[in-house]
Amino acid sequence: MSSLATNFHSPVSLAHVYAKNVGLAARAFLHALVGQRPAIQAAVVISQRARAKNLLELHHMADYYESTMPNFSAELRSLACRD
Questions:
Q1: What is the DSSP track for 15-46?
Q2: Does 9 have pLDDT greater than 70?
Q3: Which of 31, 37, 49, 58 has a CA that sits 20 to 30 A from residue 70's CA?
Q4: The pLDDT of residue 60 is above 90
Q5: CA 67 to centroid of chain Cα atoms
Q6: Do residues 65 and 72 lie in contact, with contact meaning Cβ atoms separated by under 8 Å?
Q7: Is pLDDT of 26 > 60?
Q8: Which distant-in-sequence residues (6+ apart) come within 8 Å of 65 by Cβ?
Q9: Are 62 and 73 spatial neighbours (Cβ–Cβ below 8 Å)?
Q10: How far is CA 57 from the centre of its chain?
């Protein structure tokens, strides 16, 4: 006869996880009430710069593969042109 023993004890209690989630929700609610918009706008500017850099890299990759894999190059250009 065999037996299987399992221990599903978590080192982090569920009450702690719940309290953390409630705290994060309260913090997000307070930030929404105060209206801290400049931090969000700064993140948008950074993401627009990163997007432009990524699009430029896609175009460079498309140019690199143009002679050896024209279909792949066309696919890269179509990915770069998506909104």
A1: HHHHHHHHHHHHHHHHHHHHT-HHHHHHHHHH
A2: no
A3: 49
A4: yes
A5: 34
A6: yes
A7: yes
A8: 72, 73, 76
A9: yes
A10: 19
